[in-house]
């Protein structure tokens, strides 16, 4: 391995594969390595392409029950996330033309839990008027709020109604329109997709932008703002790997990563695998490659409240209260169940080619707050109805301890509890800016995804 690369990428989670593809398109000479022989790094959660793999991972002594259908009909994501139709990941897919490798299917519904039941999330003033989430007078206030958002023009003060999105907090905006706490809940958590209520004390513009993203994504396909690749999320990293290869990227799967080699000043030199060392100017990788070893000790840490609990649940029916949807997102705002963080439910089915006919895969997740993680997702599990089988895991959330600009070691973040990809893309943009030294700029192309 005498060849020197611009960048070595470690791990084949989605973040790493997107960065590998984008860096290759940028003209960088990229070597992409993974200790595993499959796509999907440990902290990403591999796509389990057979039902037997799911049972082998969680219950090695048990074979899958025959009533769940054929083994090969399954493709279960350990960390499920939906793609927002007009979101940043969609822009990257279009910018890189990765869409040619993928087919998408719409997620049938977006719901929120309120006062003991599931209701559809209203996405505009007309849906707000029909929503059971609000009483008559609150519906009128919500209608005015949505009209304000949709009518906002930065250059026209007449549309601002005395509000400054860059200075006034979101709580100030809610108060101006007289919105009740329950209405604030579904707007902030089911539309703006915040994990907790910290956003209320910050400037309103990011929340405004998130709500506009949600409503524009909803308008794109109608039933929900989310899409999902056929055959599961494992198709995404593989598609970006193909992109990297087209632009000259080199892939080495099933390759041990024995040492991150640095010089006397701690700057990155290369990666050792067995007796071979490959050199590069920079390394980008998932946190699991940097947690141990003299040269990279202390490069990552577990964040406060830094674990996510997830339950993969096999159902034989749609989630009750979701209008028999073959797929859905359900958000339980933390205020509804006395928590600090929301609980997310993502459900997909045979419509997405990820399980056998008449089977549904629902995954319930949240950030761990107590010593009893499984009990914390109980409100989500109770909404599922009869659970045919359940697989629970708790994973730590790692973040880098430095920017990487001083040692050329750029580490990505673990995947959070959210059920969408916007936070993943924020990490891609952050690592890109640190490693490349400029903002990631995506070409604006209008390509209609086949959903």
TrEMBL record:
Pfam families: GDI (PF00996)
GO molecular function: Rab GDP-dissociation inhibitor activity
GO cellular component labels: cytoplasm
InterPro entries linked to this entry: FAD/NAD-bd_sf (IPR036188), GDP_dissociation_inhibitor (IPR018203), RabGDI (IPR000806)
GO biological process: protein transport; small GTPase-mediated signal transduction; vesicle-mediated transport
Family under the similarity heading: Belongs to the Rab GDI family.
Annotated protein name in UniProt: Rab GDP dissociation inhibitor
């Amino acid at each position: 391995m005498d060849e020197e690369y611009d960048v070595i990428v470690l791990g084949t989670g989605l973040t790493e594969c997107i960065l590998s593809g984008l860096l290759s398109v940028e003209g960088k000479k990229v070597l992409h390595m993974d200790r595993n022989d499959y796509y999907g790094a440990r902290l990403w959660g591999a796509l389990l392409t057979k039902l037997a793999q799911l049972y082998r991972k969680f219950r090695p002594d048990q074979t899958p029950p025959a009533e769940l259908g054929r083994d090969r009909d399954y493709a279960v994501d350990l960390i499920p996330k939906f793609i927002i139709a007009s979101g940043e990941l969609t822009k990257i897919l279009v910018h890189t033309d990765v869409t040619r490798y993928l087919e998408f299917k719409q997620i049938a519904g977006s719901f929120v839990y309120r006062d003991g039941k599931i209701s559809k999330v209203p996405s505009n003033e007309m849906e707000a008027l029909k929503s059971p989430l609000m009483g008559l007078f609150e519906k009128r206030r919500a209608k005015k709020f949505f009209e304000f958002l949709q009518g906002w023009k930065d250059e026209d003060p007449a549309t601002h109604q005395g509000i400054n999105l860059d200075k006034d907090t979101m709580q100030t905006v809610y108060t101006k329109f007289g919105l009740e706490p329950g209405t604030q809940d579904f707007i902030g958590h089911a539309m703006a997709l915040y994990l907790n209520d910290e956003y209320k004390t910050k400037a309103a513009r990011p929340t405004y932008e998130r709500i506009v993203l949600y409503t524009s994504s909803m308008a794109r396909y109608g039933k929900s703002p989310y899409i999902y690749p056929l055959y599961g999320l494992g198709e995404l990293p593989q598609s970006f790997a193909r992109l990297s290869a087209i632009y000259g990227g080199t892939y080495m799967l099933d390759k041990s990563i024995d040492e991150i080699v640095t010089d006397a000043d701690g700057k990155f030199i290369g990666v050792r695998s067995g007796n071979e060392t490959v050199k590069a100017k920079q390394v980008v990788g998932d946190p699991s490659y940097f947690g141990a070893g003299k040269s990279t000790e202390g490069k990552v840490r577990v964040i406060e409240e830094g674990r996510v609990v997830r339950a993969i649940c096999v159902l034989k029916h749609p989630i009750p209260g979701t209008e028999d949807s073959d797929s859905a997102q359900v958000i339980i705002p933390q205020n509804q169940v006395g928590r600090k963080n929301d609980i997310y439910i993502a459900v997909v089915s045979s419509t997405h080619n990820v399980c056998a006919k008449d089977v549904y895969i629902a995954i319930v997740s949240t950030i761990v707050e107590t010593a009893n993680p499984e009990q914390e997702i109980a409100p989500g599990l109770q909404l599922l109805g009869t659970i045919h089988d359940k697989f629970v895991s708790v994973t730590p959330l790692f973040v880098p301890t430095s920017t990487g600009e001083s040692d050329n070691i750029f580490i990505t973040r673990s995947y959070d509890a959210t059920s969408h990809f916007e936070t993943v893309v924020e990490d891609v943009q952050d690592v890109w800016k640190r490693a490349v030294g400029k903002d990631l700029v995506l070409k604006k192309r209008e390509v209609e995804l086949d959903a």
